[in-house]
Structure formats: C-alpha cells, structure tokens
Amino acid sequence: MKEQKSTKSASRRKYDQDFKTEALRMIANGRSVLQVAQALGVGENLLYRWRSQQESPTGLAKGKEKTDTPLTIENERLRQQVRQLEQEREILKKALAIFSRQTSG
Fold first, then answer.
1. CA distance 98 to 105
2. DSSP 3-state helix, strand, coil percentages of the chain (rounded to 5)?
3. From the CB of residue 36, how many other CB atoms can be counted at a distance below 10 Å?
4. Which residue has the higher pLDDT, 63 or 10?
5. Is the pTM of this model over 0.70?
6. What are the backbone dihedrals phi and psi of residue 62, each rounded to the nearest 5 degrees, phi first?
C-alpha cells in the first residue's frame, strides 16, 4: 500500500525590481553575498540568480562575452584594493590589541 505524500504549496515571496537592484548594489559595493543575504533575509542562491540575470538579461550567462571598459576595469581594481586595505586594517587592529595587552600587563 503506497502512501501519498502531502504536497504543500509553499508561498514564495516576490521582490520588486528596486529591492533586487539595491541588493545587487550592496554586493557591487564590496559586501559579500552572505552578508547581504543575511541583512535582507533572502537566500544566497537567490542573490546569485539575480546577479546572473542582471549580467545577462536573457538568462544565458554562459557564452556571453563580457565587455570590459576602462572604467569597469579601473572600478574592479579599486574594489580589490579597498578589500585588501580593509583586511590589512583588521589585521593591524588585532595586532594593536595584542600588543596593548602585553605592554599594559
């Protein structure tokens, strides 16, 4: 005797284009997909899907040639530099805390 599984229709939340654009802008400004997903209460996979759709409106991300303008290249280089400087700053903060404890005790 086979049991039928109860299928519940899970209601999906719908997000307007402004919400999607703002989420993608947060990622473009250097926040990680995980941070944005947690801040907005959405799944990481959803953010990746939105980003893929934004890069390729037809949904065919594979095979799409990416045109890198000089501004795009410079923007990406600066973003990487900011990320590296932020990491270095965090390391220096931790080192300062460690050395402060050693000299005050």
1. 11
2. 65, 0, 35
3. 19
4. 10
5. no
6. -75, 140
